[in-house]
Amino acid sequence: MKQAIVARTDLGMGKGKLAAQVAHASLSAYEDTGSRTRNEWKGSGQKKVVLKGDSERTLFELADRAEREGLPHSIVRDAGHTQVDPGTVTALAVGPGEESAVDRVTGDLPLF
């Protein structure tokens, strides 16, 4: 079991902002995951990776792929109180789900 979080690199977010967006994405996708998968993921150590995405378009393309794989996923749109404009897409979480399925969606992206 695994979850991948993809954060945009083209926005120039600071480290704290990036961490907050990754956390929002992870929690949102987790909440949309069935209880059996949640429990299995929690019991196996909650494996996560944070990956680089170069644009909003990339995140939406990955979300479409996650949908086709039947994986929970969540796109984060920022409220715009600090570093980016309101509604800016900042991150995407894919999973938790079977590691092979998550890798089919995000496996070609570089680690953050």
Q: Could you characterize what this model shows?
A:
- This protein has helices spanning 15-31, 35-43, 56-69, 99-106; strands at 2-8, 48-53, 73-77, 89-97.
- With 112 residues, it is α+β, with helices and mostly antiparallel strands.
- The protein has a single domain, classed as Bit1 (3-Layer(aba) Sandwich), CATH 3.40.1490.
Distance between the termini: 20 Å
Largest sheet: 4 strands, mixed
Strand order of the largest sheet: 2-1-4-3
Roughly what fraction of the amino acids lie in strands? Answer: 15-25%
Integer average pLDDT = 96
The CATH architecture comes to 3-Layer(aba) Sandwich
Label the structural class: alpha+beta
What does the radius of gyration come to?
13 Å
What is the CATH C-level name? Answer: Alpha Beta
Number of helices: 4
The secondary-structure element order is EHHEHEEH
Family: Belongs to the PTH2 family.
Function: The natural substrate for this enzyme may be peptidyl-tRNAs which drop off the ribosome during protein synthesis.
EC number: 3.1.1.29
Protein name: Peptidyl-tRNA hydrolase
What is the secondary structure topology, with strand pairs?
Blueprint: E1 2-8, H1 15-31, H2 35-43, E2 48-53, H3 56-69, E3 73-77, E4 89-97, H4 99-106
Parallel strand pairs: 1-2
Antiparallel strand pairs: 1-4, 3-4
Helix pairs in contact: 3-4
Short description:
Belongs to the PTH2 family. It is built from 4 helices and 4 strands.
List keywords for this structure.
112 residues, Bit1, single chain, 4-stranded mixed sheet, alpha+beta
